[in-house]
Amino acid sequence: MNKFSHFDQEGRSRMVDVTDKQKTKRVAIAQGKVKVSSKTLDLIKDQEIEKGDVLEVARVAGIMGVKRTPDLIPMCHPLLISGVDLKFNIIEEEATIEILATTKIAGKTGVEMEALTAVSVAGLTIYDMCKAVDKGIEIGGIKLLKKTGGKSGVYLAQDLVGEAIAFCSSPEKGIAKEEIAEATFKEDYGLAGDAHAGDWHRQVSLLAIEDINLMREQGLDLELGAFGENIVTQGLKLPELPIGRKLKLGEEIILEVTQIGKECHDRCKIYHQVGDCIMPKRGIFAKVIQGGTVKSGVKLEVLIND
Questions:
Q1: According to the model, what pLDDT value does residue 1 have?
Q2: Which domains are present in the chain?
Q3: Which of 43, 113, 210, 253 fits as disulfide partner to 292, beta carbons 3.0 to 4.6 Å?
């Protein structure tokens, strides 16, 4: 039983003794998702729910949840919380509200449970505010995304860190791109030498190797860049990233997600060459916030506190 800190050597429940621990700055970020109907989402955005401003009430409830965490979770220490921040990201395509809660403390134990409680209570409050018009609301995806401080150091959820396994470019739009050895990204422009770079919101396109491989399993002989993607990623669930989320590529390049998928009005050259195009369904687009030069194999990290 001693593998679990909330049990002593005899298997009895206990609150962990932190008397001799040193105080450090500790931060925890948790996520939750609330799926509603499209009609309900419109009512929330337009503040037409009869009970009031849904997201602001949920924000206050989440903060109150942080303060009451030790009253709800038996072995949690009462903590002197120094900071709480709740953000709501509306994902239109999925009629989903993403809740992000950040909790901070300078203390002897972590604030993960407080962050998780914040998103849970905020999600429940959204349900309570909207249940009169939508009893089918789903609350889920509650998890710890990041923690810093303490003896264990930094923790990042596995799906926040991936890799850019290839970079691709083409001088013309609507055709497959070719893999390049080195990629230079220019601020507010895009990938140098690529036809899609410029002063607009779709400067860079990203597509996951996992999705490309699904197409390969259908018998298609595909080179990287076949779907017009600039960056081929591995390990990230790209379509689940909300618009506005930032990505760190390598040590200095920062991208900001601007669009999830796209609408194809006409079949492009890629469709006729390959037989299908997954970029409209599985690809994402971004603009370059901070530039730099990288080679394939660099880390691609989802930034959740920027």
A1: 37
A2: 24-156 (3.30.70.640), 160-303 (2.40.33.20)
A3: 253
- Tokens coding 129: 């505010």
Tokens of 268: 């492009």
Task: Please check the confidence at residue 181 and state whether its pLDDT lies above 80.
Answer: yes
Question: For residue 129, what are the CA distances in angstroms to 46, 50, 61, 90, 235?
Answer: 14, 8, 11, 17, 36
Q: What is the pTM of this model?
A: 0.81
Q: Is 193 left (phi over 0), alpha (psi -120 to 50) or beta?
A: left
- Establish whether 8 is a catalytic residue: no
Buried b (16+ CB within 10 A) or exposed e, 184-222: ebeeebbbeebbbbeeeebbbbbbbbebbeebeeeeeee
Nearest to 168 by CA among 210, 129, 204, 217: 204
Kindly provide the b/e burial profile for residues 109-137, where b requires at least 16 CB atoms within 10 angstroms of the residue's own CB: bbbbbbbbbbbbbbbbbbbebbeebbeeb
Q: How far apart are the C-alpha atoms of 230 and 165, rounded to whole Å? A: 11
Compute φ and ψ for 200, nearest 5 degrees: -160, -175
pLDDT score, position 276: 62
100-158 pLDDT, tens digit per residue, is 999 999 988 889 999 999 999 999 999 999 999 999 999 999 999 999 998 888 999 98
What span, in angstroms and rounded, lies between the C-alpha atoms of 218 and 193?
Answer: 32
Question: Does position 23 have pLDDT exceeding 90, yes or no?
Answer: no
How far is residue 170 CA from its own chain's centroid? 29
Q: Which two tokens stand for residue 261?
A: 């998928």
* 67, 72, 76, 77 alpha-carbon torsion, rounded to 10°: 40
The helix/strand/coil state of 126 is helix
* Distance (Å, whole) CA 23 – CA 18: 10
- The answer to whether 248 touches 301, Cβ cutoff 8 Å, is yes
